[in-house]
Amino acid sequence: MGQCYGKASSRAGDDHDDLGGVIAPPSPLPANGLPPPAPAPGTPRRRKSGSATPVHQHAAAATPGPAWPSPYPAGGTSPLPAGVSPSPARSTPRRFFKRPFPPPSPAKHIKATLAKRLGGGKPKEGTIPEEGAGAGGLAVADSAEAERPLDKTFGFGKNFGAKYELGKEVGRGHFGHTCSAVVKKGEHKGQTVAVKIIAKAKMTTAISIEDVRREVKILKALSGHNNLVKFYDACEDALNVYIVMELCEGGELLDRILARGGRYTEEDAKAIVVQILSVVAFCHLQGVVHRDLKPENFLFTTRDENAPMKLIDFGLSDFIRPDERLNDIVGSAYYVAPEVLHRSYSMEADIWSIGVITYILLCGSRPFWARTESGIFRSVLRADPNFDDSPWPSVSAEAKDFVKRFLNKDYRKRMTAVQALTHPWLRDEQRQIPLDILIFRLVKQYLRATPLKRLALKALSKALREDELLYLRLQFKLLEPRDGFVSLDNFRTALTRYLTDAMKESRVIEFLHALEPLAYRRMDFEEFCAAAISPYQLEALERWEEIAGTAFQHFEQEGNRVISVEELAQELNLAPTHYSIVQDWIRKSDGKLNFLGFTKFLHGAMAAYSDELANQLFHGDGVPGYFLYQYTMQAFAGFRFVETRKNMGSRGDSITNQPHCTSLTWTHDDNLRAKPKLGPD
Ligand SMILES: Nc1ncnc2c1ncn2[C@@H]1O[C@H](COP(=O)(O)OP(=O)(O)OP(=O)(O)O)[C@@H](O)[C@H]1O
Ligand SMILES: [Ca+2]
């Protein structure tokens, strides 16, 4: 669980300062020299508690000045913000403070609590209460909770003492400690296990109780993957909750990195990264986002050099539907993805964290570093990781490409865990790769796309080389095509092969309804490729211009046609007032799409709108004055855009009920308007 408060306890390995000099001893004081966020006296929350320094302020302070490169800077051009050192390859902070940070708003949980009280479901989206309202909301929740004693019963077994003999402490986290124990009876009798003990006294809100419940639920549901800690049992008594799991005796990945002086050889790093990707791909397919991936949360089963690694600590994890976005800011500062700070994220946030871990494995330094927490966030949002200094010149081009494709600030351009397993750096013909939930998302979009869009995607897929089709071939194979074709049944069978309780809870399985059109028709490999490619991901390839050029040639031959501005705008679902955006996309000579139009069209309506809105921003064309708030830039680049794009993504979705995209975009403005103007750190 990445939590909100400084961890004063020392942990084996923390005393080193040899991760390329990066990691220094922990301290009861945070690295930024400020006092840690003040918990309510004696009542630390497992997460999402209020804080003296809301994270979004940090994030907002990091927003750019007048420069407006793109809502999703893809790296490369963004200058370092004032006061942010370039990520040091060797020169490093003297102090590493393991301090996961609190979110700016406990919105989700307040809403969840309120909804529960009102008998509603579990809301995850929508407007985020303002800071003040958030605190108020919490107060409401808290005061209501104060009136009604919290129910701290979990329905777990009550006979912990009778079943287990507790041994010595093997680790400690913010909200509990972990001990070894011997099983006294039952099927695991005599076995030594690990028991994470979470004190009920520390569960001071309904939220924190819910968090423990979910941690157990996720562990229970997910057990089964080789690189995931095995869950055995959960017990409780008046004082504690006990999570009984497999004991990992080989220590944390962080300690091994430290023990190696901060660096792995590429070969050794690959062995680690493959395990991480494998377990994360499994979690994502199940609809679980971990949200706290870091070297401290990977444990080796034994001291053996080649012992397998296990992912632990699902205290921050959540269930997520394939097309859902979360907005609560949780995680650990060094590993947090930019879109988490923008408060609209999905599974790609875990991928970013794996990018940070891989970067550390390969060079021994953190990619995003600063002396203060707000500085780290600024760096995450704006700085480009250093790939120039030693040892990077001696690192293979494939490894560098691999890391860069994880640390892309635009989450849409990042590889998925499954794709990463087929990346040239890790490619291994013998390795089985799992089904990728991204395929389901992309095929859904394709099925709802217009014929012209499908033709454009087909042209794009035809521009890919055989080696670039490997991932798609493997995914197609996993669907077990019959006579070279797949239909809804293939998708259903493939998904249910991986079915666990987590998949039901996350409603991943319900996603199959979105593929209903495939009940009546079949797809061959060629069409599957068109359906399952992401123009955004391809755009991140070094070869993108070449691919786009070749794709356009195919499109000219097989798909391009005369199209009016109105028709093109309607294809993109643009509002009539925004038709002019696409004027430049059409060739004057023959009225067909030009190259610019083709690439923009591939990216969909948001490509049009991001230009349009940026234009408005610069020219003040109908844009409300409060755009001038520093905060707005951050929100503009993240939260609101993403909300909009999600709704623009598929025809027939809620966007069709909206007059146009921007009106949907502005729905969050009231929320933003009242935000305090943010000052420097
Ligand atoms: N299965 C296990 N086997 C051995 N040690 C374990 C196991 N699970 C947890 N630990 C140890 O206990 C520590 C704390 O566990 P965990 O990370 O789950 O707790 P936490 O309170 O959520 O931690 P934090 O929030 O500080 O990351 C781990 O860092 C590890 O050292
Ligand atoms: Ca942990």
UniProtKB/TrEMBL annotation:
Occurrences of domain Protein kinase (ranges): 164-426
Q: Respond yes or no to whether keyword Nucleotide-binding is given for this record.
A: yes
Region (Disordered) residue spans: 1-108
Asked if the keyword ATP-binding belongs to this entry, the reply reads: yes
GO terms for MF: ATP binding; protein serine/threonine kinase activity
One Pfam entry name: Pkinase
Q: Where is the composition biased (Pro residues)?
A: 25-42
- Which residues of this UniProt protein bind ATP? 200
Going by the UniProt record, its keywords in alphabetical order are: ATP-binding, Kinase, Nucleotide-binding, Repeat, Serine/threonine-protein kinase, Transferase
InterPro entries in the record: CDPK_Ser/Thr_kinases, EF-hand-dom_pair, Kinase-like_dom_sf, Prot_kinase_dom, Protein_kinase_ATP_BS, Ser/Thr_kinase_AS
The superkingdom of the source organism is Eukaryota
The name under which this protein is listed is Protein kinase domain-containing protein
